[in-house]
Write a structure and sequence with these properties.
The complex is a heterodimer of chains A (about 475) and B (about 100). Chain A has three domains: about 280 residues, no CATH class; about 120 residues, no CATH class; about 60 residues, Arc Repressor Mutant, subunit A, CATH 1.10.10.410. Chain A is an alpha+beta fold and about 475 residues long. Chain A is built from 15 helices and 16 strands. In chain A, strands 1, 3, 6, 7, 8, 11, 12, 13, 14 and 15 form a ten-stranded mixed beta sheet that branches. Helix content of chain A is about 40%, strand content about 20%. Chain B is an alpha+beta fold. Chain B has a domain of about 35 residues: Histone, subunit A (Orthogonal Bundle). In chain B, strands 2-3 form a two-stranded antiparallel sheet. In chain B, strand 2 and strand 3 form a beta hairpin. The chains are: A alpha+beta (about 475), B alpha+beta (about 100).
Chain lengths: ~475, ~100
């Protein structure tokens, strides 16, 4: 039987506010345990939550970026369960009337476009952290993270492969950083994915029983976990078994998922509106104000790069992976608009490679877009070869001659010889010095030609344009 | 809607409230009383009334995003049964 995999994703994006969602404690990462957990965060009796303006604003920003409805009023609810890292015995979340409802995200998989619908995105507070290392057989609780604002983004079950799920997660990851609502740092847990996976016979409508895979903290693990989970479910069904609805954990070391808790013993969260918080009202004026703050979105930029600069869909996607890369590209191409493809190739190749190797962010790139454009202009006007451009780039990276491409080209004597007369003169000399190869070529030995090209390049110390040498040499040999 | 003693026990367990067999029977009577009250109220026609999520007809005030709290963990932890390295210690929890 042919099986179809059905995937929906829940993503928790930590909102990049300075203070917590309901208290004035700091959200800075990496502080000493419990030094950023105030009376509200640790649920001392008598405290009251007060909602953070910036957390709401970031949620609105997201909603507008995905074309969703912004609910007003929007309501906060208590999600009740007991766990030591949840001091109140409930998490303040949203149930009915989340801030963001609906919307969609476009993804590209294998050159095909697809729309993934969003169900909702709601505001909630994060829990603390439990440390299970041995504290004399006890667990340690750090409540610094308790009360950190999260936007939980829930998709419809619209994805049909692990590749689509990863593409969606990446698109979302790009978007939240692009609009500046989340730093996207997956190691620090600022962007966490849970996947709901089920399978059904291809061609049928009814959804199969799903399993939820928790805490996938990289795109690679997300793909591997979904692949494993789908295989596991298909094997069970093909053996005549049935799937039990449960929560599973992905173990990266063993590349498998395993039961965390089954739904029979699942929590009954008994949601109800939080009486400590009044309904949230979001005015039209506020929405308009946020709309005005939104930058040009990645998809719009991507399409513009394809249309205005004639870039391929792949190139346009790579260059819009982050706003910083896109800005760098745009500032480069601004000064060399006829050579967008050359700019794209260099930014995706030499520049990115070097940044990765030295672990530098593009915003701190030692070669500025203007300097890069000056270098690329010398390739496009034939002053230097692509090969020597790499040497010049290397010198610019080191800060030689103040990063000025022309000064480096002059200092290193890298200027190509493109004067026909000069090249002809050199070729004549080479031909005169190698009569044997000339005779070989004329008697039909093609290889002798390459050897002669090599001799000419050697005579010019590599500064001649090889294409030009080829042409002139061929003409001379035909005579 | 009729409640059973099992429902009472399940809710008590979810709320982490320990109740005896005798108490759950008592609780069943009291909770059933509340349910019959709700049933009576359902006789009122509310079709033309917009549901409220809060008893007060007011909207939420918002806080500016500034850090105003300082580190008071030593004070807070002075009443904790057990602490170590700045952490609260609790009986081991692993799912």
């Amino acid at each position: 039987m042919q099986w179809e995999i059905v995937i929906g994703l829940e993503v928790h994006a930590q909102l990049s506010t300075r203070s917590k969602i309901f208290s004035g404690a700091s959200t800075a990462y990496g502080a000493q345990p419990n030094t950023q957990a105030c009376g509200i965060d640790i649920a001392l009796p008598g405290v009251l939550p007060v909602l953070n303006y910036s957390a709401v604003e970031r949620a609105i920003k997201f909603g507008l970026a995905v074309g969703a409805t912004i609910n007003s009023p929007s309501v906060f609810a208590r999600k009740n369960y007991f766990y030591p890292d949840l001091p109140k015995g409930y998490q303040i979340s949203q149930f009915e009337l989340p801030v963001v409802q609906g919307g969609s995200i476009r993804i590209q998989v294998e050159n095909a476009e697809k729309t993934i619908r969003l169900t909702r995105a709601h505001l909630e507070e994060d829990a603390g952290k439990s440390l299970h290392e041995d504290f004399h057989g006890m667990s340690g609780i750090d409540l610094n993270r308790a009360g950190t604002p999260l936007l939980e983004i829930v998709s419809e079950p619209d994805m049909r492969s692990s590749a689509e799920a990863a593409a969606y997660a990446k698109a979302l990851h790009t978007l939240v950083r692009w609009i500046g609502i989340c730093d996207g740092n997956m190691q620090e847990g600022s962007f966490r994915c849970d996947a709901n996976v089920s399978v059904r016979p291809r061609g049928t409508e009814k959804l199969g029983t799903r399993c939820e895979i928790k805490n996938l903290n990289s795109f690679r693990f997300l793909e591997k976990a979904i692949d494993f989970e789908a295989r596991r479910q298909i094997e069970i069904l093909e053996d005549g078994g049935s799937i039990r609805q449960e929560t599973r954990l992905y173990d990266a070391n063993r590349d498998e998922t395993r039961t965390m808790r089954s739904k029979e013993e699942a929590h009954d969260y008994r949601y109800f509106p939080d009486p400590d918080l009044l309904p949230l009202s979001i005015s039209k004026e506020w929405i308009e104000q946020v709309k005005a703050m939104l930058p040009e979105l990645p998809e719009a930029r991507r399409n513009r790069y394809i249309e205005d600069f004639g870039l391929s869909s792949y190139d346009a996607s790579v260059l819009t992976a982050t706003r910083e890369i896109a800005d760098y590209f745009e500032n480069t191409v601004k000064q060399l608009s006829a050579q967008a493809k050359l700019c794209a190739n260099w930014i995706m190749g030499e520049v990115s490679g070097r940044l990765n190797k030295e672990n530098i962010e593009i915003t701190h790139c030692p070669v500025s877009p203007a300097q890069l454009a000056a270098l690329l202009a010398r390739i496009s006007d034939g002053t230097i070869s692509g090969k020597s451009a790499k040497d010049v780039f290397d010198s610019m990276w080191q800060g030689e001659q103040g990063g000025d491409a022309d000064a480096i080209i002059t200092a290193k004597g890298l200027k190509q010889i493109s004067d026909d007369n000069e090249i002809e003169k050199l070729i004549d000399e080479v031909l005169a010095a190698h009569p044997q190869q000339v005779a070989d070529y004329r008697s039909g030995k093609e290889k002798a030609f390459n050897s002669l090209v090599g001799q000419v390049m050697k005579a010019t110390k590599g500064k001649a344009n090889p294409a030009q040498v080829n042409t002139i040499l061929k003409q001379k040999l035909l005579k | 809607m009729t409640l059973s003693v099992d429902d009472v026990k399940r809710v008590a367990n979810l709320a982490r409230i320990e109740i005896s067999e005798e108490e759950s029977k008592q609780m069943l009577i009291q909770l059933s009383g509340i349910f019959s009250l709700i049933e009576q109220m359902q006789a009122v026609d509310t079709s033309h009334i917009e549901p409220m999520s809060h008893a007060q007809d007011m909207i939420q005030r918002l806080r500016e995003d500034v850090v105003i709290e300082s580190d008071q963990h030593v004070l807070f932890q002075s009443i904790a049964p057990q602490v170590e390295a700045g952490l609260y210690l609790v009986p081991k929890v692993i799912e």
